[in-house]
Each structure stands twice: as C-alpha cells, then as structure tokens.
Amino acid sequence: MQQRKKELQRTHQFLHKHAALWCGLLVTLLLMVAAGMLVWHQLNPKTHFNNLKTVAHNHTQVHQAKGTFNILVIGSDERKNQVSGHTDSMLLVHADLTKKHYTIMSIPRDSRIYLNNFGYTKLTSVQAVYQAKYGAKQGAFRAVQAISSYLDVPVNYYLETNYTGFRSMVHAVGGITMNVPFNVTLTHPWYAEDYNKLITAGNHKLTAKMVTEIVHERDSVPGTDFGRQRLQEAALLGIGNKISDPLNAFKVPALVSSISQFLVATNMSKTDMISIGLAMKSNFNAKKQVRYLQLQGKDTVLYDDVLQNYNDEIVLERSQLHKIITQDF
C-alpha cells in the first residue's frame, strides 16, 4: 500500500511539475487541428469558389452559382525575352465543380473585333496591341477584359502560356496519352527533324516535345484553325486525365509549385489551382464530364484597321454565341 501511495505521489508531482508543458502541447495540438480545418476550408472546392470576382464584364452585377467559374486560356506566340505576343489560341472554360461538369469553347483567333481607339482587327492582334501600349502585364490584362466584353461573358480567371510553358507543363506530368482526332502531318514544326512527320488518328503516348509539335499544326488539319483548336483540346484533356489519375497525385504539388515555368500571366493563385486539383483528383471521366463547343462564323475578307490592310477575318454568328453563353456559361 505504501508503495502504491509513493507511486501516486511521484505521478502527481510529475504532472504538476510539467503541467505547463502539457498545456502547451495541448494548445499546440488544438491550434494545429484548427489550422488544418482552416486550410481545408480554404481549399475545399465546395466553398473555395464562392462569390468570385470577375476580371471584367459589361454588367455591373453578375450572378454565378456557387462552385462555378470561367477561365480564359490563352496560348500566345510570345518567345523568351519578348514582352508581347499574338494570341494563337483561345479557350473559354466553364467549370461547375458541384456537378463535376466542364464546358470548353474554342474561340477562333481570326474573329473580328472592334477596339476603342484602334478600330477593327482580329482577336489574335488584341494582346499585341495592348501590350505595345501598356506593357506585358497590363496589356495581357486589358486583352482579357476586351475578350470578356466581346463575348459578353464574365471571366473569373485567365491563364496565358506559350510554347515553352506548354511543353514544360506536359513534361512535368511525364508526357500524356493524347487521342489525336485525325491524321496530322507536321508542316511547320518547331524542330527541323520533325518536318513532314505523320501522326495518325488515335491514342498515342507522347512526349512533351511531340505534343507541342502537334498542337502547333494548322495547315494539314481539317478546318485549319478549327482543327488546331481540336488538337489543343485533346492535349488539355490528356493533361487533365494524367493529373486526375490517383497514381499521379504526388505530382500535383510539384506541378503547382513550379507553375511559374508554365504560365506567362495569370490571376490564379496556388490555392486556386490546388483546390481545382482536389475537385478533379478522382473519378474524372472526360466523355461524361467534358463538353466541347466551337464557335462558328463567316470567313470574309475585310479591312483591318490595326494591320492597315485587307485580311481574312471570321465574323462570328452572334445569335449562336449568345445562345451558348446563356446556356453554358
């Protein structure tokens, strides 16, 4: 009995002596749990994408359902050490994370647009025009605003990449499997050794170098620019499938942390990207969840006020555009 009393006394003395330490550990643990819950709340796709701001829009108030947002993806021909570039491709992506549904709309780069103080030109020239006047960063932002106004759609995020960035992105995920929709002959490759190479329609496991060669091609594919847009969509889908594969989940943090290598300009934060990754990390099925749309228009030779000559330009069917934006964005 005496032995038992001594043990209890020693235990009591030990606890009393280290009470501050135990309290400190308990407080630290609670703070860690609270911090974890706060981080999860910030990253949780169900709450992260609520009440988002828009880059620009004609309307003073824009209602967007919770968990939905629009991203303008721009592929430019900007080279290293350049401060401006022309837009080679444009995709408007509507994401509904609640329904796990994604709509991708291709916008023809030769679409005719009117710019205040500049006149009529093609969408491909908008970025170069604004960057020449306002600088690289502000020029890209103004280009996004102009395209948002032109399409009459709210844009929450924008991402601009170029050849180097796109290749780095595909390389970071270890290459992709790409479903090439039709035969592609490389008539204007980045690398001379790839000239006249034929890539047949179907699924191919491709390196970053070959993916960027394929999505650059336009002259040998059906519909030229429209065909190139389909190739770019197929490549983006391949990247999405690779990232959403649970076996590749460990690559996402590295991909996000090195995002500066892939993007020329963006207003999307790393937490935005991680949250999107969490939403798509499993059960991603492109055939069921992704819808592709292509804007149509009339190819016409018209005077371009910026280029100061006549050019082939596409006049979009505004009724079709309005219907798509109303239903899908």
From TrEMBL:
The family this protein is said to belong to: Belongs to the LytR/CpsA/Psr (LCP) family.
The protein's name: Cell envelope-related transcriptional attenuator domain-containing protein
Domain Cell envelope-related transcriptional attenuator: residue ranges: 86-243
Record's keyword annotation contains Chloroplast: no
Domain of life: Bacteria
Keywords: Membrane, Transmembrane, Transmembrane helix
Species for this entry: Liquorilactobacillus satsumensis DSM 16230 = JCM 12392
Chain ranges passing through the membrane: 20-40
Taxonomic lineage: Bacteria, Bacillati, Bacillota, Bacilli, Lactobacillales
Membrane in keyword set: yes
